Sequence to fold (841 residues):
Amino acid sequence: MSEQACDVVVIGAGPAGMRAAVTAANEGLSVTLIDEQTEAGGQIYRAVARVARTRPADLTLLGPEYAAGGDIVLELDAADITVLHGHTVWQISQDGTVWCSDGTKAKSITARFVIMASGAQERPVPVPGWTLPGVMTAGAAQILLKSAAMVPDGPVALYGSGPLLLLVADQLLSAGADIRVVAETTTFKDYLNAAPHLLGALPASKYLKKGIALRRHLKAAGVPIIKAPNGVSIEGTERATGLRIIGKHGQTFEAETILLQQGVVPNTQASWQLRLDHAWHAAQHYWYPTTDRFGATSLANVFIAGDGAGIFGAEAAAAAGALAGLGVAHAAGNISAAARDQKALPFIALHKKAAAIRPLLDHLFPPPAHILVPDDATIICRCEEITAGQVRDAAKLGAPGPNQLKAFLRAGMGPCQGRMCGLSVVEIMARAHGKSPAEIGAYRIRPPLKPLSLAELAAMDDDTPTP
Amino acid sequence: MSARHTEIAIIGGGLQGLSTALHLAQRGRRVLVIEAHHPGRFASGVNAGGVRRLGRDPAEIPLAMAASEMWHSIEDLVDDDCGFRAVGQLKIAEDDDDLRKLEARATMVRDLGYDHEEIIDQKQMRALAPGVHARAVGGLWCAGDGSADPMRTVQAFYRKVQKLGVDFNLGHGVSAIARTGTGWQLSIGDAQITSDIVINCAGAWGNKIAAMIGEEVPLETHALTMMVSERTPHFIDPVCGLASRKLSFKQTPEGTLLIGGAHLGYADRDAGVAEPDPIKMAISAKTVTEVFPHLTNVRIARAWAGLEGMTPDRLPIISPSKVDGSFFHAFGFSAHGFQLSPVVGRIMASLICDGTSNLPLHPFRIERFSDDKN
Fold:
């Protein structure tokens, strides 16, 4: 017997997953929501309910958009939904069986429909020295701030581009961090490329105003915001000691903590593992599973909501979650197509408004060339310590794509299964062979999606039906 | 439309096809390998890499002995050591019944005139496999066996074969085969290739190729589930199995644990898909943690499955076609062809160049599946 069976399993309790779960439950479906964290909110609204309860002052620091996440958490609490916190999904079978573990015991849940809301991951930022202790992503620093009120000791430097870069710099500054520099890769050419999209972004002008305010606030506090179009290298041998700006007048800024940020990309490990159809986003250089407006994928019983299907941000993700919930309610036979479409209208409008700024952001903050195709000496696969140069050499020796590369280098075969190097490998191999990323393809992803102990696996009841 | 011509066409760029190409090229023959994907895409590149004589079906022992010698000088053959390590293979007896079973096996092998498998006592077994649970009483040991790196082996054979001037046609499989006046015509995508001699090394697809010339061979397709762990401190050298339970276990030089045991996953041959079964992963994990209790906290990083073609008697087909003397088969290795591959190529080259082989091939003839009916 399967441990649990339900109409819908929703994976991920960020804005998309929470909203999808609530919507599907309101349409009369039995819903199980699985999330890795111990509390709802996802990365964007990480720990929002607890922060509101125990550190209300920090809500101001983290801003009104973060605080708004609390409302969805309340709706989730009120709905009749089975929520499995602290559960990691390690495999999704095409028939809708979701395999997860609470850290001690693996189990499976069978569902008629699966809504994946696994969100985004930060784009890996392979610059020289990025594997040194003291280097982390800006997002990771923000999570420490949200969930544990932790602020880095000592001098801090930030490098990269995009909305999160300035936001994290500003939040850390307000929390008392010693920020020495923000090095931006955005160039004048990026502004020119983005300019045609400015008008379209006006419905979301609040984001634009927010960006300008952040910049002004940082400058007023004396934080230098400098250009680093040619990239940076991280100084240090045992651990990071400084950030060097590459270029004619390359300065070095002392820093013990270096935060990297080049935007976020969809978390596609599970969608690749399910062998869903994917497409390549040309401006932002990432894979996304192709979906319709209700999140339906190339598998009839699998839906995707939120940034996992393309980066549109938290508000759009919540709207997409509602749409996926409606899409599943219709596919399950609970509501007619007409009712679905009627109920979808406000969410389609919300999504459109929230997503209006994306073309502008996508063109203003493209990942720079030195990140997409790093120098020969830069490590791209952290698990197996493989450099960009080794990948280029393997391509020259005849490896046609990422999966054949494994035979040459073991790249992508470590515990992260290519989460860190997947996009770099595609980009490097596409250039080496003069092909498009779509022609090159992606790593095949195998279970477990995240490492799982032998004890957890061994504890699984083996009378679970084999799908 | 003119067709490209070759003297010998090998269908399948797995290890058996590559090894056959290698030996034929060394004997001066013109060879073309036709591979639907890329060399070693299915079973050859993703198997456990066992280099094993231990526990072989008696029919395979002469071949496995010859192959073993070749593995010990594999660098002479392909200019690379293929990651081969002669760490030995051990079958562990978990109780007295197991031990009696292994003793009977050792006697049988000795009576056939071989001395490569020997019974060892509990102390010797523990020295070879530290950490095994206390109930285990002994084992069957084959020194000189070991393991190699399958991907590296495929790459080494592929490179060597290319160096010897073998041609490759990658990316399209054979869709039809027709007899011509002097040989064969193979349809590959939109192209045609003519060949005097054809060798079917198509692995899990071997019976599809055989059927194209009217030979019916029973072949099941199975996906064999494998798992690999994160790196963990080195503790064991030999490749270990169990007398009664399904397990194949070894620690790689990098420190990862490679866990198999012929647990079946999901196979879809037409889609080219092989997936591990999570339930079988759990059964494997249970076996490993029972046998090596200190490994419970080691984490599995990845599981996968290879597509294997399995015959009803689990013995390969290494045989001239019964339909036509210029068509040959080497497929259906039933998940234990990796170790045999160096010698299989040599056998095929002998069959083609000399018309005979000095190894006993009777058990592997293709006629055996129709003998009963005739």
Observations:
- The CA atoms of residues 133 and 290 of chain B lie 7 Å apart.
